[in-house]
Amino acid sequence: MGGLIEKREINAKTILTKAQGYLDAGFTHSLNPYAGCAFACRYCYVRELPVQKFKEAPWGTWLDVKVNAAERYREEIAGLRRKGKPVRLFMSSATDPYQPAEREAKVTRRLVEAMLEAPPDSLVVQTRSPLVARDADLLVRLKDRCRLVVSMTIETDREDMKRLFAPSAPGIGLRMKALKEVHDAGIPTQAAVSPVLPFSPEFPERLLGIADRIWIDTMGIGDGERGRRSARLGMPRLFAENGLSAWYAPDIHLRVKRYFARFFPEERIVVSKEEAHPGRRTPAEG
């Protein structure tokens, strides 16, 4: 999966970043255990952020491992608690917390262990990696100490679309299997159809019983610049070249929501920034 990655161990100066932009609707901080990402999805908006813009190496070829992440978390959450501040975390916004390197580095696992000692008020674990199921033993304990959702990016159920848009990302079937394992462990789960890619008519049915919540987002409304980042990344052209322009329509999120509502209670289907935080609608509320 993917090519050679240049890995570097670093000591992060901070690990909790104040939420802004897309995340300021409900979250207080983002938490990125790594910088860079081996999955290198073609549509990833992080390619357009300073973390990559000022790098000479292409996106997907480098990874910084924040080996002191758990220690920094303990210190920073203690400081926030002393000030009486809420802590609602999104992990992660500019990387995947379950990079292939995580299998051995265990930076994210140590972070979850630290959260068991000092839990945030809420945590969304956002990943596209089946490796998240490895930590189900910790996450099942953490869900009793904070509002927790494990959100798996499953932007399509078609492997041909995955190969076109995210060739180095884990297979769709593996992601669904991992999400089911997490769900069966009693941990609240979300399928992030984000960004929407062309999918089969059976897609919603395949998510029944493994996702408590469906979160829909698109390149047009969810890239942080109302589609301008996606345009700079050539996404409209890529869709057009493959005869997929209908899936890039400005209202595709509304049409996808209506379609998923045939299979899921409408209150369990949420859209983009305004409904991203699980405190707005929870899996138990349907």
* Number of E-state strands: 11
In DSSP terms, counting alpha (H) and pi (I) runs of 4 or more, how many helices? 11
Strand order of the largest sheet: 2-3-6-7-8-9-10-11
Beta-strand fraction estimate:
15-25%
Largest sheet: 8 strands, mixed
Number of domains: 1
Label the overall shape: globular
Please sum up the structure shown.
The chain has 286 residues and is α/β, with parallel strands linked by helices. 30% of the residues lie in helices and 17% in strands. The strands form two sheets. An eight-stranded mixed sheet has the order 2-3-6-7-8-9-10-11. It has a three-stranded mixed sheet with strand order 1-5-4, with no helix packed on it.
Give a verbal description of the structure.
The chain is an alpha/beta fold. The protein has a single domain (6-274), classed as pyruvate-formate lyase- activating enzyme (Alpha-Beta Horseshoe). It has helices at 50-53, 69-82, 102-105, 107-117, 136-142, 159-165, 172-184, 203-207, 228-232, 235-241, 252-260; strands spanning 6-10, 16-18, 29-31, 34-36, 62-66, 88-91, 122-127, 147-153, 189-193, 213-216, 269-271. The strands form 2 sheets. It has an 8-stranded mixed beta sheet with strand order 2-3-6-7-8-9-10-11. A 3-stranded mixed beta sheet has the order 1-5-4, with no helix packed on it. Strand 9 (189-193), helix 8 and strand 10 (213-216) form a beta-alpha-beta unit. The chain is globular and about 50 Å long.
Secondary-structure map with pairings?
Blueprint: E1 6-10, E2 16-18, E3 29-31, E4 34-36, H1 50-53, E5 62-66, H2 69-82, E6 88-91, H3 102-105, H4 107-117, E7 122-127, H5 136-142, E8 147-153, H6 159-165, H7 172-184, E9 189-193, H8 203-207, E10 213-216, H9 228-232, H10 235-241, H11 252-260, E11 269-271
Parallel strand pairs: 1-5, 3-6, 6-7, 7-8, 8-9, 9-10, 10-11
Antiparallel strand pairs: 2-3, 4-5
